[in-house]
Amino acid sequence: MHVARDIPVKYKIHHKTIYRYTEPVRRSVHELRLAPRSGPLQSVQYWTLSAPGNLSEARDGFGNIVHNFTMAGPARTIAIVATGEVEVRIDPAPTGQAGAEAGEGGHGAFQDLPEAGESRVSPLYFLSGTPLTQAPADMQAFAAPYLAAGHEVPALLALADGIAERVQYRANTTDVGTSAVEAFRLGSGVCQDQAQVMVAACRALGIPARYVSGYFYDAAAASLASHAWADICLDADRGLWCSIDVTHRCITDGRHVRLAVGRDYASAAPIRGILEGGAGETMEVDIEITPLA
User: Fold this and answer.
1) According to CATH, what is the number of the domain 9-86+270-292?
2) pLDDT > 50? residue 101
3) Ranges for the Transglutaminase-like domain (predicted)?
4) Which of 108, 110, 136, 173 is deepest in the core (most CB within 10 A)?
C-alpha cells in the first residue's frame, strides 16, 4: 500500500477474540489494553469495547488506556470485542522546541509528552531490561556497530534491517513467552520477537526503548493485522521518539495503528487474564481492518 505523506488515513477496526474451554471457567479477572488513545501519530474517532462483565477504565503509568473486568462463571466461552475508527497522521512534525530541533532526530521523529495533569513514567524508565528483553554479550556485540556513531534515525533503521535479517520472520516458531535472546539465538520468530530484540539491543546500549502493540493494515496479508514494533527515544528531555517497524524495516506510517506501549510484550499485551477452572483453552481471533474514504 502506497501512503502519501501528510494525508491522513482512516480505518474502521473490528477485533473479536473468543476463548473456549472444555472445562467451564468458574471465575476470571481480565486486564485489557484494547483501546487506542489519540496522540501525535493518530486520532481516535470513536472506540467501543464489549466483554462479559462490567468494564472499569483507567490509565497506566505508560499512558495506555486499561480496562478491567471480573466474570463470575460458569462459562465455556469468553468473547471480547473491540470496534472503532482511527485516523492515522502521516509523518507528523514535532511541535514546540522539539520541532525546531527535529533535525537531530531526522525524518520520523515525533514528540510524545504527558497530557496536562497526566502522570506518566519518564522515558528513562525504558532503559531497564526485563526477563523478556535482556541483551547478553552476543546481542550487544551484534547491535553495537550499527549505533557506534549515534542513534539517529538512519542508524536505527540499519539496526532494524540487521535484526530482520538475523531473526527471520517465521510463524509458529516462538510463543508469547519467548524472550528476545531466545529468538535472537534461534534466528527466527514473529513481529513480537523482532520488536523485543530491537528494544533489548537499544536498552543494552543506553538508549530508552519501548515495545508497541497495535494493528497493521495490508489487504494482502490479513494474518499480520495484529502487529508489534518498537519506539526508540531520540531525546528523553524533550520526549522525542521514533517508531520503527522491524518486520517491515521502516518507520511506522499510515498502515500502523497503535494500541499500547510497554517495557515488553507482557506489559503491553492486548488481553491478560487469571482464571479459576477453564481447562482446555482454545482461542479464536478475528481482526478486520477496513480503510475509509
Assistant:
1) 2.60.40.2250
2) no
3) 183-248
4) 110
